[in-house]
Amino acid sequence: MEQIRLRHDLQLVLEQFSKIKVDYCNCKINLKARDEIVEIQKNKMEAAHRRLEILATSIENYKKKYQDTLLKLQGENYQLTQKIEELEDTIRIIQQNNQSLIIEGNSCDNRRVESLEEEVQILESRLAAEEEQHREEIQKLKDEYEQRISEQLKMAEELQTKIKKLSEQALAQKPFVHPALYEGASKLKNHPAPRKKPSNSTFNWPSLDVEKIPKTPGPTPPPKKKKKKLFHADDEIVNVV
User: Fold this and answer.
1) The pLDDT value given to residue 7
2) Is 206 a member of any domain?
3) Are the CB atoms for 154 and 50 separated by under 8 Å?
4) Collapsing DSSP states into helix, strand and coil, what is residue 4?
5) Average pLDDT, the chain
6) pTM, 2 dp
7) DSSP per residue, 129-140
């Protein structure tokens, strides 16, 4: 059985080309998988952004509602304050009348004054109870608002942390190109095979055109190039055993 032996430097070139081809295919498969992972993470980031926008809108709406309620309660508190001032004026007048009645020594008027004083005390106790109730309601609303705002801000911080983590993971998925695509090609160009004088018995082998592939941000296929001549006269005789 006859076996064809290549020249030693051509055999090395052929083996290196085969290795580069295998590495290139593996890199292309890995790059495609990385692109799919980046796309999934991008979708997750977009979903997180949408949730954050919805949460921010909810916080703004709740803040506006709280401000409206607070303004309403402040208005009611102002009205109650005016009413209390009016009642205090009435009490002052009643006390003045009571003093005048005591001076006059009218027992009937004294009983009437005592009745009026009791009514005034009842009104004062009612007003104090209503004022305390309004203060408790306002404090309760403030506590609920602060608690809800704290919860919403906590959720927003968690979403921002998740978005930051996804962004860091997406930036970590950079395109990978095997170093053999650059180093092997440069070695072939820097060390061309020596030539000898042609002889009568020769065997033509195709020359290998290896080009340096520039770095690309994505799996962009190499541009088509014009075909070149693949055969030339080889100076070395290939022995056939």
Assistant:
1) 75
2) no
3) no
4) strand
5) 75
6) 0.30
7) HHHHHHHHHHHH
Sign of CA dihedral 87, 92, 93, 97: positive
Which of 3, 44, 16, 20 lies closest to 181, judged by CA? 20
Q: CB burial class (10 A; 0-12, 13-18, 19+) of residue 108?
A: exposed
Query: Which of helix, strand or coil describes residue 206?
Result: strand
Question: Do the domain assignments include residue 190?
Answer: no
* Residue 119: domain span: 33-172
Q: Write out the DSSP string of 100-159.
A: HHHHHT-HHHHHHHHHHHHHHHHHHHHHHHHHHHHHHHHHHHHHHHHHHHHHHHHHHHHH
**Structurally, how many domains does the chain consist of?**
1
Contact (CB, 8 A) for 136 and 73: no
CA distances (Å), origin 38, targets 30, 31, 43: 12, 10, 9
DSSP 8-state class, residue 201: S
Which parts of the chain sit beneath pLDDT 50? Answer: 1, 176-179, 181-185, 188-189, 199-208, 210, 231, 236-241
Q: Is residue 108 part of a domain?
A: yes
205 SS3 class: coil
pLDDT in tens, 78-117: 999 998 999 989 998 988 887 777 776 666 666 777 888 8
Q: Is 22 inside any structural domain? A: no
The candidate with the shortest Cα–Cα distance to 12, out of 177, 214, 179, 191, is 191
Of 172, 174, 179, 173, the closest CA to residue 24 belongs to 179
234, 202 Cβ separation under 8 angstroms = yes
